[in-house]
Amino acid sequence: MTLILFGVFFLLVFLNIPIAVSLGLTAMIGLYVGGFPFSMFPNVMYASIGKFALLAIPFFVLAGSIMEYAGISQRLVNFARTCVGHRKSGMLAVTVIVCCFFAAISGSGPATVAALGTILIPAMVHQGYDRGTSTALLSASGAIGIIIPPSIAFVVYASCTDTSVGALFSAGIIPGILVGISYLVAAMIATRKNEVVMLPKASAAERWAAFKEAFWALLMPVIILGGIYGGIFTPTEAAGVSVIYGLFVGVFIYKEIHAKELIRVFVDSAVSSATIMFIIACAAVYAWIMTTSGVAADLSAAILSISENKIMILCIINIIFLIAGCFLDANSAFYILLPIITPVLASLGVNMVHAGVFLTVNMAIGLVTPPVGINLYVGCKAGNVSVGEICRKIVPFLIAGIVSLVLITYIEPISMLLPGLLGQA
Question: What burial class does residue 30 get, using C-beta atoms within 10 Å of its C-beta: 0-12 exposed, 13-18 middle, 19+ buried?
Answer without folding.
Answer: buried
